[in-house]
Amino acid sequence: MLRLSQLRYSRNLQFWSLHAAGWLAYGLTVYFGFLFYKQPPGIGRAIAIAAAAGFALSMPMRYVYRSIWGLGERWVIPVVLVTSYVTALPLRIVINLAYQHFCDPSIHFTSPFDLFRNALLSTYLLLCWSALYFGIKYYESKKQQQEAVLKAVTLAQEAQLKMLRYQLNPHFLFNTLNAISTLILDNQNRTASQAVMRLSEFLRYTLDQDPMKRVTLRQEMEALDLYLGTERLRFGERLRLEYAIEGAALDALVPSLLLQPLVENALKYAVSPREEGGMVRIEGRARGPMLEISVIDDGPGLDGHARPAERRSGVGLRNTRERLAVLYGESFRFAALDGRPGLRIDLALPLETAAREEALPRVAEPRFRRQARVAQGAGA
User: Which of 63, 90, 115, 159 has a C-alpha 20 to 30 A away from that of 359?
Assistant: First the structure.
């Protein structure tokens, strides 16, 4: 039994199926048309021969039309008219002979002019065949063009997303290596060594991840914990982390490494320049059809002189906004709000959950889970 997929993607099979179905429909239509009148004996066999002749004689028209496909109307229309009429001449002869033999012996052509005139009746039928052929071919051509455009747009979006994702790696690496260099200059060699190990673990994860892949928020937090492990060695007790992530939000899908540039931005402006350090809080909640994520710090905020607004529109925030725009179009929200003090980054994405959780590199137990046990009890 033929599969529908084979019928769809095999042009030859599609043509022969439609060709046979069309002439079968012609035969049935003529036959049932005679039911309203007195049927002459042998009419069924005559109609069957007429349909079979139409099936056979119209086959070469396909190859003629193939050769002129793509030419302008100035060539196509005359060729279609001539081809239909030339094919109608032998078809009309076969039809008349069939009716003469099986139905009425008195049916015959009185002159060549009579043949040419009666051929016009079959020409109309073949013109309908031609119109269906070109209509279907035009539809397939437009569909292929649309698929090619969609494929090109998809490839362009994938290339843009990969470019945006890969921009993060050198940006993050530059900042982290500067921090490790500072540890070495301060003779904190053991801490610097631990930072290098944490950095290599995080970079291994980023290189193994497909930039086009989306992960659950739980997996994203585990990856973020690898990054924060390096920053904890750098800042020590100066870095205070808080988590308030609802259980329902942990299974929602997000772009991989979505939060790392936002947290890095908070560390750079809220923790690093202040002797007392600072707090970074991550919230996650499911609200109706949206997943809401917030990254909050207690730094100077947008109005602070130590962190003017123009400095807060750097690579990390701009990159995140552009990635979300490519992935979600108009179906997301991104807002940077002045917390007075502090800065609050609010994201809202369409809520989609994973059917199953894919494997990720695991740390012993992500710190966000241990801390989230208390924070989740308090709510987002």
Answer: 159
CA atoms of 158 and 148, how far apart (whole Å): 15
Per-residue model confidence (pLDDT) at position 362: 42
**pLDDT for the residue numbered 379:** 40
- For tokens 């809202």, the residue is 348
Cα separation, 194 vs 199, in Å, equals 9
List the Cα angle 334/335/341 in 5-degree steps.
145
Q: How far is CA 21 from CA 51, 193, 236, 268, in A?
A: 11, 76, 78, 71
| Weakest mean pLDDT among 30-34, 251-255, 278-282, 313-317 | 313-317
Distance, in Å, from the CA atom of 365 to the CA atom of 58, rounded to the nearest integer, reads: 73
Indicate where the chain has its CATH 3.30.565.10 domain(s).
188-378
Out of 3.40.630.10, 3.40.50.10190, 3.30.565.10, 3.30.559.10, the CATH code matching 188-378 is 3.30.565.10
Angle (CA) 160 165 166, round 5°: 100
Q: Give CA–CA dist 272/225, Å, rounded.
A: 18
Which residues have C-beta within 8 Å of that of residue 137, sequence separation ≥ 6? 65, 69
d(CA 271, CA 290): 30
Position 347 scores a pLDDT of 94
pLDDT tens, residue by residue, 169-178: 565 677 678 8
Residue 90 carries which side chain, given as an amino acid letter? P
Phi/psi of residue 305, nearest 5 degrees: -70, -25
- Which helix H or strand E contains 297, and what residues bound it? strand 290-297
Q: In terms of Cα–Cα distance, which of 221, 272, 238 is closest to 376? A: 221
Binned at pLDDT 50, 70 and 90, residue 369 comes out as low
Of 205, 123, 142, the closest CA to residue 168 belongs to 205
Q: What is the pLDDT of residue 95?
A: 77
